[in-house]
């Protein structure tokens, strides 16, 4: 362990996570395309929900919240990685690094909370179908969502507070962007205490949210046994979208936890880009109201554009 008196004043960090990438341009282009698709798809999802009053319901408010989380998730780190790969800009200021670290971990925790509250929404809908709209109103949904953002901020505040007080021995990071592990490894202290602190917190959050989601679907599956075939199909249809999103987000996380020697950097990037890209398409294609809205827009575009092209070419 380095001595504290050997510390240096860090104004910028050097990002070295892509130094061994053989084809940085190709990787950067793939990440850029994925990033743009994810942002555009999530923005469209939000706009569909905002401008269609028929979608101003608790479930769609939660879908909108998830889209906001996904936008912030990929925007917090991906531009930095794209800049390193395509433009060769491998430095980031101290303040920007801490902002990136805070936002990245905040939306990471909020992704867990967002998926858990969406499972709770489905649980209420199937357990109390006639009282659903009185139990879970738009106002209550917004209040609960706001509280979850505050709670997530409280958990994440531990990271920048602890990292900012430590002495630094190097400005070079071995990771692709600024997360807590990357920053702590540039300090002069033994990182194990800080890693254990955050690991306990993250294990609690992962265990609690995943257990809650699993328990919710266990109750839903139990209720399906006493439902008619028509109700079973309806219940299964509304739950499939959420289960796909949950699987897409939790799978790389559990792989990262269980197999600690696998490529950590690649899995982290996967947990950022994959859910952010998959989630809006899943809800667009699996949700009847949003899908019908998209089809109506395409029909209007085709009706307006096709005569123009026919006149121009013929």
UniProtKB/TrEMBL annotation:
Keywords: Cell membrane, Disulfide bond, G-protein coupled receptor, Glycoprotein, Membrane, Olfaction, Receptor, Sensory transduction, Transducer, Transmembrane, Transmembrane helix. PANTHER family: G-PROTEIN COUPLED RECEPTOR, ODORANT RECEPTOR-RELATED. It is found in: Cell membrane. InterPro entries: GPCR_Rhodpsn, GPCR_Rhodpsn_7TM, Olfact_rcpt, Olfactory_GPCR1. One of its GO terms (molecular function) is G protein-coupled receptor activity. The keyword Disulfide bond applies. This is Olfactory receptor 10G4-like. The keyword Ligase does not apply. Pfam families: 7tm_4. Residues 41-310 form the G-protein coupled receptors family 1 profile domain. One of its GO terms (cellular component) is plasma membrane. The chain crosses the membrane at residues 25-48, 60-86, 98-120, 141-163, 200-223, 235-259, 265-285.
């Amino acid at each position: 362990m380095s001595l504290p008196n050997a510390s240096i004043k860090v104004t910028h960090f050097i990002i070295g996570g892509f130094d061994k990438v053989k084809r940085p341009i190709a990787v950067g282009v793939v990440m850029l395309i994925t990033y743009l698709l994810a942002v555009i798809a999530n923005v469209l999802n939000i706009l569909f929900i905002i401008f269609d009053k028929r979608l101003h319901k608790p479930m769609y408010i939660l879908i909108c919240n998830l889209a906001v989380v996904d936008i912030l998730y990929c925007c917090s780190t991906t531009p930095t990685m794209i800049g390193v790969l395509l433009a060769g800009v491998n430095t980031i200021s101290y303040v920007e690094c801490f902002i990136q670290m805070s936002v990245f971990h905040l939306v990471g925790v909020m992704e867990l909370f967002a998926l858990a509250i969406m499972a709770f929404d489905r649980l209420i809908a199937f357990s109390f179908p006639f009282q659903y709209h009185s139990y879970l109103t738009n106002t209550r949904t917004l209040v609960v969502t706001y509280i979850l953002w505050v709670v997530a901020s409280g958990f994440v505040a531990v990271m920048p507070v602890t990292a900012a007080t430590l002495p630094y021995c190097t400005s070079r990071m071995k990771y692709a962007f600024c997360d807590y592990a990357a920053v702590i490894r540039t300090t002069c202290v033994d990182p194990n205490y800080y890693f254990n602190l955050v690991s306990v917190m993250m294990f609690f959050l992962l265990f609690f949210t995943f257990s809650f989601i699993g328990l919710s679907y266990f109750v839903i599956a139990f209720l399906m046994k006493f439902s008619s075939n028509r109700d079973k199909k309806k219940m299964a249809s509304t739950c499939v979208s959420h289960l796909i999103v949950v699987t897409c987000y939790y799978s790389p996380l559990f792989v990262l936890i269980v197999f600690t020697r696998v490529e950590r950097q690649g899995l982290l990037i996967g947990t950022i880009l994959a859910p952010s890209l998959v989630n809006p398409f899943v809800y667009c294609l699996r949700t009847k109201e949003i899908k019908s809205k998209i089809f109506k827009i395409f029909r209007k575009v085709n009706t307006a554009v096709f005569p123009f092209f026919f006149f121009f070419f013929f």
